Amino acid sequence: MSETKINSKHPAGLFVLFFTEMWERFSYYGMRAIFTLYMTKALFIDKADASNIYGSYTGLVYLTPLIGGYVADRYWGNRRSIFVGGLLMAIGQFLMFFSASNYQNADLSTIFMWFGLTGLIIGNGFFKPNISTLVGQLYPRGDSRLDSAFTLFYMGINLGAFFSPIVCGLLGDTGNPADFKWGFFAAGVGMLFGIISFELMKKKYLVTPEGEAVGAISNKKRDEADKAASEAKGEKDTVNTGAIANKSVVIWAAIAIGLISTFHFLLGQDWIGSAIFSVSFAAPGLILTDSSLSKIEKERIIVIFIAAFFVIFFWAAFEQAGASLTFFADEQMNRSININTNYGIIYLVVTVFAGLLYYTLQRIMDIPKEYKILFGMIGLYLIFLVVKGFVVGNRFILGDIPASAFNSVNAIFIVVLAPLFAEFWGKLGKRNLEPASPYKQALGLLFLSLGYVVIAVGVKGIEPGIKVSMMWLIILYLLHTIGELCLSPIGLSLVNKLAPARFASVLMGTWFLANATANKFAGTLSSLYPEAGKPTSFMGWQLTSLYDFFVVFIIMSGVASLILFVASKWLLKMMHGVR
Fold first, then answer.
1. Are 164 and 30 in contact, with CB atoms under 8 Å apart?
2. 3-state helix, strand, coil in the chain (%, to 5)
3. Are 553 and 314 in contact (CB under 8 A)?
């Protein structure tokens, strides 16, 4: 590999995937922003049942990538899986639209809702692991740009997560139950836009540096082609081309069913939680017992599973943003802000932000000319809005910030910081100073813990009902974002670096199992949120105040960070030269 290749911009294919994932996340987070409101305000489902449905949905969304990854590895390849998954998700959103269009007919709307959720869950399973896998295939093995590539890809995820609640919320959450359908419709249109863009651009831009198409064939066939090429060069037994045997799948499926029964009947878990926890045990067992794995491959896969285990603790604490931290923002935080300004200024801020974002991205990666034309048209329209805003003179007025709006703070920080992190890792890599992936993930857990230190200091000694400054929560989200950028995109990159090609997508799906487990665990931890006169307990420790509650997360993430730091040297040995 030439030095020029390593130091060049990221390929245009990365922007295609960046753009596609941005719209998929727009669809997902836009629907998620109004889903529970739709259930409680239009279908009149009580909050407890709505919360259980919501939790089951988000948990299963991270469970099905294991199936989608297996199908892509063995049969379809990444491209077809992404197309099918995106199409199913678009159909799911439009079924939600039909559900909301018939909200006054409880039976019909509920049927449409369940079919819609099913399409979203299955579609995400095919889409999510495969688009992440494609990012890694754009680069030759050993390319030092891979960590920064996933950081940029992660930025696309959060661009969608930032804009979608605003758009879908404004359209759907108007106070009129009849309008929820337009939020779901917007989410469906966003998904369609993303998948059409992917289909139009994939042949031209989703290629290796040598011009070969990536993701067009199954990863099993790709692995077989690698072996044939190695043998042609006189390199024997360098690549294994086995795949998980059907017999093994049946055996481990039976084990998973047994574990589900154990979790449900003996440990009292609900069926969804039992399924998530059981598959999280069975899937690694299925992969590790595959007879085609060499010793080195097996050790590298073990590193993936160990890293995934620590990721559970990160996301269980991080995902409090949508639960206990939202309660905190609603009840204990001063959210007053007085904004009364011209709409022209608002549009100007948006235009400047979009311009800076585009300038930063085009410096780091090649942007296809088709997208440049599109963005040029959008830029002209934004300039028109700025001029119109100042000429017409309408006022933008905002009093209190809604508690739910603070969920966008993390996405804003991601969009701002992700390019800086991508450049930072790249510069360290050129100087051979870039820390290895396990150390980055340990840093991520450390910053997570520091975020809870900040909020614990902010609430120490305050009485229920006393409001604290919103800056405590904003600083927490800043530190959590830094931790997220150290851990999450690096984890995706780690899977691509360590996974054998024939198991690339199924291992990405297994990685997302950690998110499924973490989301379920996050709900359990959030239920410990103390209220006046209702103390809770964690492992025998009475949580009588918010300070006690946040200390739980300080200890959990801090201890996990310390253990991972200590274990990193051993993990690096098992990675056999991969960093």
1. yes
2. 75, 5, 20
3. no
